[in-house]
TrEMBL record:
GO terms for biological process: cellular response to oxidative stress; hydrogen peroxide catabolic process; response to reactive oxygen species. GO terms for cellular component: chloroplast. This is L-ascorbate peroxidase. Residues 256-270 have a biased composition (Basic and acidic residues). It comes from Kingdonia uniflora. Its cofactor is heme b. It is found in: Plastid, Chloroplast. GO terms for molecular function: heme binding; L-ascorbate peroxidase activity; metal ion binding.
Amino acid sequence: MAESLLRSTTISISKMSSSLCFSSSATLLPSSSTRRPTSLSLSPTSSLKCFRPLPSLSFHQNNQILHQGRRTSLVRVNSNVARTAITCFASDPAQLKGAREDIKELLKSNFSHPIMVRLGWHDAGTYNKNIAEFPQRGGANGSLRYEIELKHAANAGLVNALKFLQPIKEKYSGVSYADLFQLASATAIEEAGGPKIPMKYGRVDVSAPEQCPEEGRLPDAGPPSPADHLRDVFYRMGLSDKEIVALSGAHTLGRSRPDRSGWGKPETKYTKHGPGAPGGQSWTAQWLKFDNSYFKDIKERRDEDLLVLPTDAALFDDPSFKVHAEKYAVDQDAFFKDYAEAHAKLSNLGSKFDPPEGFSIDDAVPEKFVAAKYSSGKRELSEEMKKKIRAEYQAVGGSPDKPLTSNYFLNIIIFIAVLAILTSLLGN
């Protein structure tokens, strides 16, 4: 079946007319029309370049290339012509799992949970539901890796998050930037004690800095009318009042630094010794623990060393916001549930997925039903017998993807033996 699928999907590289994108380590020459800066130059190998296919290619010993983060298998046909079959999507699931483990180790060593959450949010938070086209609509598309967008005032300091993640991106080149940013954000929440985020992956990256959104789409911390401003920004993304309040609860993590945002104290009793780089003013006393203390502390305002921005205060001042904020202050389970749903929704905004429905890296692969597995003999069963066994198997409580804990044929043998004994006794 795999060979048949491969044959049905292969195409000749020599017949392709559109340009292909490969990692800059590929041994092909770029066309002059595609020489443009692509991403923040954090390392010589971090950017992607576009190439046009040559009439014939020689691949020597290598049998794989990268196409904009998509892994492509190559099958040699002869010394000059190769055929290609796409075997993965915008991101490789196995590499995403590896990247997630590396992100967990990174968080343990540098306590960068808050800035990772902010990175994912700011890449996604530029989405405009009134614009249909990708990537003009903004959203989670990896555009934040470009210097032009990093220089937006709301993104001050996020270059540090890029530097933390760049070695992971280079190690797992089959992961798109858009997926990496959202993976880091969700992993940071979970590693800080927060809820499991129902994430999906397969986001496609934008390919040039010209595709970055204009400045001004992200929320401001101190607008003249905080509640109205929050609604202007988040309604534009298609989010509700409940989702605005739930997402605001992520301020339970992190600190505000006056040199970056203009808000907060240079340091407090909670931040002067770190962990991580000391300084800033946090919203909560335990600012690396994800819980509902943000809502409790905003409501009570019992400590002047804890930060309350105008947009934070609006959650208890605005009647509609207050309903949800009051609930989350006393019910952490409700907050976790609503937050996980809102975070996942935010992470998908504006994304273009490949495959279109996306994919999860947490789905367990079910065990497939194999009729021969339940036979004690060595002889292969016929297809007709397998169908019969499958039907009988399901009739007694099994399913194609969930084998019974006991041996099917052994149960039949025992049943027949018991029946024979009873028949013999009755006959006597």
